[in-house]
Write a structure and sequence with these properties.
heterodimer; A: 451 residues; alpha+beta; Uridine Diphospho-n-acetylenolpyruvylglucosamine Reductase, domain 2; Uridine Diphospho-n-acetylenolpyruvylglucosamine Reductase, domain 3; 15 helices; 19 strands; B: 491 residues; Alpha-Beta Plaits; five-stranded antiparallel beta sheet; globular
Chain lengths: 451, 491
């Protein structure tokens, strides 16, 4: 990177907030080192930085907590990592309005702690909440088990401020919970992976914290029975806030991880599957629903429900990857809720057939599934891993679903596309990208359809 | 917009008939009159043609023809919109979606339905009701308005406080793009990799294309419902109670406010048992599990009493509940008893600003020598001041429009929005700068360019523009055809 540009950037954000050389090691993705990493301290500084570098056509890689930095294809060109961690202020929280405005670099954990003191919460529980930032969670559309009842970022984000590819500061939505003025820009930026603009501030609708919350698990000898229990639960009067279906590997863990639930340390594994259900509300409501779940599952081959400690929640958010000390690859799927068990069953079979270990976990009520593949400690050949992943994607597609390769070594990613082909909709996405980022500077090449 | 010659018109009519069939094209000015306005009768614009497609292929062929002929086009549902959004502002073709009204598929196990855009909102709940399901978004015109129209406006309703608006219930759409290509945005699964095109399409007021199939979520009906009416002697106390309820850690399904003028009009007209001397009443509904319903009701009652309610009534049975809701839902019809005409405003404010903004609304309207009735979604902070007036008095309607603009300014000043559910359409396009900067609007324009680069798809809407081709008020208020039939109310 040219020295005069570095100098200019240092004047904008202050010299200590511009990293070069060995300081860049935390920002290396897939072996690719950025030219520099820069940490603006205000929205105006973000704007000034982007205006300067995009003029030169340099790629800008927005960076929050780095928890999803390796999702997608790495930028083909080196560029500038734009760290948002210093934009971490809580701008406004009015409890009577049930809304909050925060800067994008605040972590989810920090925000929840601030809200909790006033009896409220953001009903979004992605993995790694202590590191994941609000901006990153929005850009990657991360969510957790409670999405079953409370939806995802798209349902909670009511306003957003972004810095565009040219450095303009633009607002979409607003601060009120209901608003149809203008196009729904917040929806556009949720899940856009930093390819359309850099999210710098967000306004959410909140919920009051429930009086009580409980997580219970029910073991089954057969995945099929657990799946039938999910269906019965969905058709019942119960209102769970989470419905998680885990296969034995995900639930009990491998290699001493204890799995997503930590059950491996306390319980002998069952061969089938574990259903984990969350309830919240008034104490009497939680009580009544737990009893209802016990009745419902007993008739379908479930063991007696067992209460889980609240520490299990963040592990559930991690999905299948928590099953292995180090997963070789992680794939995420969306399918119809009724297809979940079949995908898990067939997918596990495909991995077994190639001698690889796999773990499966699902937000079963909404059809969001994750699978982790482990080649053990052996230095792994990419071919069999790629073959299993390709087969998994085919299984999902056959059932009308989609797959995203969330994590894999670059050697595998070069054989198995990270993203599914969005077909005709991909052309509209490309047009949106061309309109909003004509020089292709924001996370170039990372996203779907070559965006 | 150049006027079409008679011979060109005949030619185009033949082309359109070749696509949708002889009985599905209107071009006679008398027949076109029915489609000259929506529920906001302030604006009128005549189309050259109204067509009635019955398939996505029909829609696509009409759109391609419009592109070739460089004619603007706009889709229309039941015409219950309240911002002029479906008007053919620059002439051209109106595609009435009313013949595409089938429920194509209901998948109870996956809690979704695939429907056509002309399906009437309430008919979906009727269809899935026997199995214990319903479609949650419930705009007050739900007996007449269509799912497609709901998508264009991202419609809400009283129960959005707990369940969200249309966008929270749409999984995917088959869309005819403004260039005639048929594309799926989203689908039956929860999310697809890539930009949330379905999310962006919902609420785009018909400017991004025409939906031809819609995948919506259907929800299990709640086990129990509890409806209360809290009566207040001061409007401020009622406003404060809204935030007080939220502060007790509860999110009711609905919290609606009805002011004194409205209560009296309703009582004169229908006798729903609201106390005539009350300054305001809050209609609060809880739903969910039967267990805990009593405890939650007690919390609401306590919150209202602490905020100064003089009385809180609880509906003891379905008949009492229906009567309480009738008071709320018939408010708009009741205004007809006290005024020859009224205009409904739609603005949103942070809940905590309710006491201040309601005072300002009353002041603004009084300063214009007019009266106002308020009946609205208080829990969401979604105001609906209804300004009463007499269109026969010269200048009165202009004063209503001016007062409306000032009310929107107040909403914007307290950090709110200029529309909660009626949309921008033609009515509020010039108010957009109240809440959006030039840069904000420029980004929206670029997004529009990605979907609708020629601008032929529903031109003249959403963005500030000169309303040169549209006949703009002061035209006398006329009730919409469906109001006259008693099919729908304005909210």
């Amino acid at each position: 990177m040219q020295d005069d540009l570095l100098e200019r950037l240092r004047t904008i954000v202050g010299a200590p907030n511009v990293l070069t050389g060995v300081e860049l090691s935390p920002y290396v993705v897939e072996g690719r080192t950025p030219d520099t990493a820069i940490f603006p301290g205000s929205v105006e500084e973000v704007s000034a930085v982007i205006a300067r570098v995009s003029e030169l056509g340099l790629p800008v890689i927005p960076w929050g907590g780095g928890t999803a930095a390796s999702v997608g294809m790495p930028s083909a060109r080196a560029g500038l990592v734009l760290g948002l961690r210093r934009l971490n202020r809580l701008v406004e929280h009015e409890p009577g309005d049930l809304t909050v405005t925060v800067e994008a670099g605040m972590t989810v954990g920090e925000l929840q702690a601030a809200l909790s003191g006033r009896g409220q919460w953001l009903s979004l529980d992605p993995a790694d909440a202590e590191r994941a930032t609000i901006g990153g969670v929005l850009a990657t559309n991360a969510s957790g088990p409670r999405r079953h009842l409370y939806g995802t970022a798209r349902d909670l984000l009511i306003g957003v401020t972004v810095v565009t590819a040219e450095g303009a500061i633009v607002k979409g939505g607003g601060k009120v919970v209901k608003n149809v003025a203008g196009y729904d820009l917040p929806k556009l930026f949720v899940g856009s992976y930093g390819t359309l603009g850099v999210i710098v501030e967000a306004t959410f609708k909140l919920r009051p914290r429930p009086d009580d919350e409980r997580l219970v698990c029910v073991s089954f000898d057969r995945l099929k029975d657990a799946s039938a229990a999910v269906r019965a639960l969905m058709a019942s009067d119960l209102i769970p806030n989470a419905v998680e279906l885990l296969d034995a590997t995900a639930a009990f863990g491998a290699g001493g991880t204890g799995g997503a639930l930590g059950l491996g340390r306390t319980l002998a594994p069952t061969p089938g599957a574990v259903l984990v259900v969350g309830f919240d509300g008034l104490g009497e409501q939680v009580e009544w629903q737990c009893a209802g779940l016990a009745r419902l599952t007993a008739g379908l081959g479930g063991r007696a429900p067992q209460a889980l400690a609240s520490e299990a929640w963040p592990k559930l958010a991690q999905g299948a990857r928590a099953a292995f000390p180090v997963a070789t690859a992680v794939m995420a799927f969306v399918v119809l809720p009724t297809q979940v068990a079949e995908l898990m069953e067939q997918g596990a079979g495909a991995a077994r057939a190639r001698g690889l270990a796999a773990a499966w976990a699902a937000h079963a009520g909404v059809g969001v599934v994750s699978a982790a593949l482990s080649a053990g400690h052996e230095p792994s050949e990419p071919a069999p891993i790629a073959a299993v992943l390709a087969e998994w994607r085919e299984i999902a597609r056959a059932g009308g679903g989609l797959a995203t390769l969330e994590w894999a070594p670059l050697a595998v990613k070069s054989q198995v596309p990270v993203w599914d082909d969005p077909r005709a909709a991909g052309r509209i996405m490309q047009r949106i990208k061309a309109e909003l980022d004509p020089k292709n500077v924001l996370n170039p090449g990372r996203f779907v359809a070559g965006i | 917009m150049a006027t079409l010659t008679e011979s060109r018109k005949r030619e185009l009519r033949r082309d359109l008939e070749a696509i949708v069939g002889g009985g599905a094209v209107l071009s006679d000015p008398d027949e076109l009159l029915v489609y000259e306005s929506d529920g906001l009768t302030l604006f009128r614009a005549l189309a050259d043609f109204v067509v009635f497609p019955t398939s996505a292929e029909h829609v696509a062929a009409v759109v391609r023809l419009a592109n070739r002929a460089r004619l603007p086009f706009v889709a229309r549902g039941a015409g219950t919109g309240l911002s002029g959004g479906c008007l053919p502002a620059e002439g051209g073709i109106v595609l009435s979606m009313m013949r595409m009204n089938r429920v194509l598929e209901v998948d109870y196990d996956n809690q979704l339905a695939v429907v056509e855009p002309g399906l009437v909102n309430l008919h979906l709940s009727w269809k899935v009701g026997p199995k214990g399901y319903y479609y949650a978004p419930d705009p007050s015109s739900q007996q007449a308005c269509t799912i497609g129209g709901n998508i264009a406006n991202n419609s809400g309703g009283p129960h959005t406080l707990k369940y969200g608006v249309t966008t929270n219930h749409v999984l995917g759409l088959e869309v005819v793009m403004p260039d005639g290509e048929i594309v799926w945005l989203g689908g039956k699964t929860r999310e697809a990799p890539g930009y949330d095109l379905a999310g962006v399409f919902v609420g785009s007021e018909g400017t991004f294309g025409i939906a031809t199939k819609v995948v919506v979520r259907i929800l299990k009906k709640p086990q129990a419902v509890k409806t209360m009416l809290a009566v207040f002697d001061h409007v401020d106390r009622a406003s404060e109670a809204v935030s007080a309820i939220i502060a007790r850690g509860l999110v009711p399904a609905a919290v609606e406010m009805i002011d004194q003028l409205t209560i009296q009009a309703v009582e004169d007209a229908f006798g729903c048992g609201y106390p005539r001397d009350a300054a305001a009443a809050l209609l609060v509904e809880l739903d969910g599990l039967a267990v805990g319903m009593e405890a939650q009701t007690e919390r609401i009652v306590a919150a209202c009493r602490d905020a100064g309610a003089r009385e809180v009534r609880t509906a003891r049975n379905e008949a009492e509940r229906a009567l309480l809701w009738k008071g709320r839902k018939s408010a708009f019809g009741a205004y007809g008893r006290v005024s020859p005409a009224y205009m409904v405003m739609d603005g949103v404010i942070p809940r905590t600003k309710l006491p201040y903004v309601l005072r300002r609304v009353n002041e603004i309207v009084a300063a214009h020598g007019l009266r106002v009735g308020n009946v609205f979604h208080a829990g969401d902070g979604n105001l609906h001041p209804n300004i009463l007036y007499d269109p026969r008095r010269p200048g009165e309607e202009a004063r209503v429009v001016e007062a409306g603009g000032q009310i929107m300014k107040v909403c914007a000043e307290v950090g709110g929005s200029i529309s909660g559910e009626h949309g921008i359409g033609l009515e509020k396009s010039d108010f957009m700068p109240f809440i959006f900067s030039a840069a904000d609007l420029a980004l929206m324009q670029r997004l529009k360019n990605a979907f609708n680069p020629t601008g032929l798809c529903n031109p003249g809407k959403v963005f500030p523009t000169k309303k040169s081709c549209v006949e703009v008020g002061p035209v006398a208020y006329q009730p919409h055809a469906i109001e006259e039939k008693g099919l729908a109310q304005r909210f």
